[in-house]
Amino acid sequence: MTKDKNQEKNISRRDFLRRVGMGAGAALAMSVVDPLRVLAHDGKTALREKNVTEASRMTYRVQHGSGEQISLLGFGMMRLPNNQTEVDRLVDYAIAHGVNYFDTAPMYMGGQSEVLTGNALARFPREKFYVATKMSNMNPRQWTLDASRRMYEQSLERLKVDHIDYYLLHSIGGGGMDTLKGRFLDNGVLDFLLKEREAGRIKHLGFSYHGDVRPFDFLLDHQDDYHWDFVQIQMNFLDWRHASMRGGRRSDADAEYLYGKCEKAGVQCVVMEPLRGGAFGRMASELADKLKAVRPDDSTARWAFRWVGSYPNILTTLSGMNRMDHLEENVKTFSPLEVCTEAENALLAEIADQMSGYPTIPCTTCAYCMPCPYGVDIPGNFAYYNEAVNSHVLPLPVKQSADYAARKQQFADGLRKALPKVETWARSCADCEECLSKCPQQIRIPNQMARIVELLRRG
């Protein structure tokens, strides 16, 4: 990073509270449009007029290039119920209440996410929703132009559309510049996608980012060549301040840097992991109580969404809503969004500092690492470990402590309850390292599995 960039980054940190206490500036960036009085037209699931009362209150952002009004709450379709009727019910409620951005990918649910999403959205007029999907050519066998083109065409078929509104190069950064070149540059795939955008079959072209920051910088530094319409980044109030020390080692980038570079390039951001894989919903009680003291009726999730939405260069904020109660709460949060005050941002900054001191594993339960060839439930083990940390079962005291045996037994009993199948436990990890290149958070997964095994072995 150059001296000027370092200076710019330091300035933005000093101005953190001023920048996120947006006030009128953020309000100007938000808009509220007429109700989306959209009815499903299959004759069976027609929505009643009374169900669209929230739609007029949804907060929208304007896409800079097209003027499209995109709901600030986007529907992430990665973890859908594997049941079309239930997915239809969720999508019906979302559209009736103003949500119009739906994000999926060929690799989600082994392709079923695109199928379920396409079936649900096909019941609505095409102009009433925007669908996003991705070039998920992660496997080197998929790096040829023909294989990537087939993946793209398959997405169009599964989604039952003749154009894709928002198309992404999926998770650039993993594997560094060599992988970026192999997946998209040297094989002509990016050139093909640029031509598809020119032909109108792709309306907006962007990329999502995890991992090595060099591909992220390269693509934005060549904005004059590629003209990215949007970039999808991981952003939340913890990664804004503390992503630079992720997993016990220094990361190449953080949310503040990613957002700032996109903003400087004039490219709007789509946000993923605003709740850090649900970690904010499982926040330690003493931290959650500080938020409850200020806004007793608000969940920790609502705080996190309000924080992200307060930034004006955010086009939409994705949430994986596979339960109706989560969808209903999130709709209320954004209908309309209430921008965080300076005092609230100061409180969230304080909580982020405290959360960074908890020895949790930075897993967002995305399950990109799965399946494990040895049957280990990697995200399940990490989710339970983090829950034990937040509930203060971990770290275990020294063996001489009076409550050592009881706490160790509590940890073991909880693991059995969380993961009833013993073959999915951390002890089945064979240290094959197949998962390492797949993890967007760059977690040293076998090392963390060994920590869990050691906790169960002690004493």
Shape, principal axes of CA atoms: globular
Q: How would you sum up the major sheet?
A: 8 strands, parallel, barrel
Oligomeric form of this entry?
single chain
Q: Total helix count? A: 19
Uncertain spans = 1-53, 245-250
Strands, count: 12
Could you report the average pLDDT, rounded to the nearest whole number?
Answer: 85
Helix content range of the residues, please?
40-55%
Distance between the termini: 47 Å
Strand percent estimate: 5-15%
Order of strands across the main sheet: 3-4-5-6-7-8-11-12
Radius of gyration: 22 Å
Based on secondary structure, the structural category is alpha/beta
List keywords for this structure.
alpha/beta, 12 strands, single chain, 459 residues, disordered N terminus, two-stranded antiparallel ribbon
What does this structure look like?
This protein is α/β, with parallel strands linked by helices and 459 residues long. 42% of the residues lie in helices and 12% in strands. The protein has helices at residues 3-14, 16-20, 24-29, 84-96, 112-121, 145-159, 176-185, 189-199, 213-221, 223-226, 239-242, 255-265, 285-294, 300-309, 324-333, 342-355, 378-390, 404-418, 445-457, and strands at 60-62, 69-71, 73-76, 101-103, 130-135, 164-172, 202-209, 230-234, 245-246, 249-250, 268-272, 314-319. The strands form three sheets. It has an eight-stranded parallel beta barrel with strand order 3-4-5-6-7-8-11-12, surrounded by six helices. Strands 1-2 form a two-stranded antiparallel sheet. It has a two-stranded antiparallel sheet with strand order 9-10. A hairpin with a 6-residue loop joins strand 1 and strand 2. Helix 9 (213-221) packs parallel to helix 12 (255-265). It is globular and about 70 Å long. 43% of the residues are buried.
